[in-house]
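Re-running the complex after MR caught last week's input typo. The corrected sequence lines follow. Everything else is unchanged.
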Amino acid sequence: MTEYTSRNIRTWSMLGSCGAFGIAAMELPNIDDRCVVLTSDLCTYSSLDRFKTKYPDRFFNVGIAEQNMVGIAGGLAKENFIPFATTYATFAATRCADQVRVNMGYMKLGIKLVGLTAGLSVGILGATHMSVEDIAVMRAIPNIVILSPADCMESIKAVIASAEIESPVYLRLSGTMNNPIVYKEDYNFEIGKAITLREGDDVVIIATGTMVYNSCRAAELLEEKGVSCRVIDMHTIKPLDENEVQKACNAKLIVTVEEHSMIGGLGGAVAECLAGMNRHPPLLRVGLPDIFMHAGTYEHLVEKCGLCPPSISDSIFQYLQSEHCNR
Amino acid sequence: MDKNDVISRCTAAAKEMRKDALTMTLCAGNIGAHVGGGLSMVETMAVLYMGIMKYDIDIPSNELRDRFILSKGHGVLALYTALNQAGFIPKEDLWTFKMNDSYLHGHPSMNPEIGIEFSSGSLGQGLSLGVGVCLALKRKNNNTSRTFVLLGDGECDEGSVWEAAASASHYKLDNLVAIIDKNGIQYDGLTSSILSMDPLDEKWTAFGWNTFVVDGHDIPQLYDALSRQSDKPLAIIVNTIKGKGVSFMENDPKWHNSRLTKEQYDQAMKELGCNA
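Corrected-run output:
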């Protein structure tokens, strides 16, 4: 069984979210005998070499054919297996969007689609490999649970939790190797239930994926300026923990932070939730601009997009000074 | 049952299905129906459901059943009428086709209780599902059930069909049968003028399948082809006539999806030797 020790947590962080997926995959047959794993020519990238060796009859590498992979996973799910299928997040959400829509959405086949390198982590390969629309695409399709873990331990917990529910799941894995650690020790992960990492009254930052860590650091910087921030890890984008959004309405400002387009992602989800409420504070959405980015290293792109902790902190501080928050 | 008896049972079913399909089209009124491509596959479906496939209407999820996937989802007229022949769908329900709140949609909607294993309509997806089902059957050591996937020839334009075809032979799925209803006409006209896929049989063979070409309206030929045991995935290309059985529909692209007037219906029924 997976042991959530501090040493393991450090090792998983070094491996990054793809490596963490490979660790979690080794547990899947123990969790449920019906688990199988598919990939579209990303066996090594998904850290599945050990899985392939130990469980050759549970592993299918379908080649560079993502649409077929989702269809095959659908057939396996219909026959009562629990298929995990891996590809780059951008191809999971866009190249096979129709297969995802029909198989996972319409027919509710229990496929667990794993989107690797979501966000900007392989940004050096250019815009074709950045995945900044995947949450928007997946959110618009009914019946799909969307998980976006904050660090490598949470990625492992999300994989295991996915195996334990019947519904289709899109698992968004973001970050690079040496992923920052948000959770230094074991904790309770529950799909649909956000986690408050830090308490504060002025601002509530709702963050997801890699941006949870950056938001925690931004909150520390804001504290130095006398602004107290609550930080929430919204690891489940759908169904959104609307209770937490409701509670956040007591603050002066709600902020969403994500490594995803500002259109249709976590910010969109929270905005839609707030739109249904009588009274709510202003919402500042921090995310990627509505453009295709030039290629660049992860660190460069994160900084350029204003997603590093000082930029997040500055954006929030400036917004608090603006007329939006002082009407 | 003696083979000749099976053939006559399939023949009788096909006649009834063609008649019912036309009545369903009339019932759909101005909404119309995909009647041309439904009529082209009537004999294939009759042979599958009355002669070849194993199913259990009392326990539809019986593990030892054969699986059927209608990848060309618009061919529902032939599917629903076959399911009626098999005993899954009552006759009177056929006349609710395409009506508000009817379970008989214009494209099949997943309903395992009545033998509809998957939803379809978005072309090019059924064969991948079939590959997944066949892999699952093998992992469950079910060596008796086969999976039949019915595709249109126009549908074979979709690249995902060929991704699935390649994977089926890679995984040596001798329990998978693809049936390609080659009626030669797609929405916008002749397949040969829209996107020529000929020689279609050689393409399937090149993808590692055992391939046979038969007359899709010849029930004994269909029966023999669908009864074949194969050491590879099996592709059966059935040469058919779109709108088969109705003189004014045959080989006319405009009957891909069309409404039927009462006069046309009466004439069609007369041609089929039925009293409307």
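None of the earlier attempt is carried over here. The mean pLDDT of chain A is 97. Residues 45 and 254 of chain A are 37 Å apart (CA to CA).
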